[in-house]
Design brief:
mainly alpha
Length: 97
């Protein structure tokens, strides 16, 4: 599967879901640092995800794993995910007070 195989609507849903989960787990700062530092290697990271897919999906029930791996090979999607995490984290902080 390639990033171009995923519709724009599906891409939006997946990135929002990942960002929301990261913020809910209060891992936004760690995730942002990790994503920013790995952005130049996003293609290599996505290929590592493909390589590890049989092991990971046998342990964790993750139905969109192949879609996430495909999305992460494009740096623009990584940047979009970072921006969504930042926006949701700012909203969480504002609500918290």
């Amino acid at each position: 599967m390639f990033a171009s195989d995923i519709s724009v609507e599906r891409r939006e849903v997946i990135l929002t879901k990942i960002a929301q989960k990261v913020v809910d787990l209060k891992l936004a700062p760690v995730a942002i640092v990790m994503l920013e530092s790995s952005k130049p290697l996003s293609f290599v990271g996505s290929q590592l995800m493909v390589f590890l897919q049989p092991v990971v999906t046998s342990i964790f029930p993750f139905h969109q794993y192949d879609e996430v791996a495909a999305l992460m090979e494009d740096r623009a999607n990584v940047e979009e995910l970072i921006q969504r995490i930042e926006k949701l984290e700012d909203g969480r902080r504002d609500r918290k007070g």
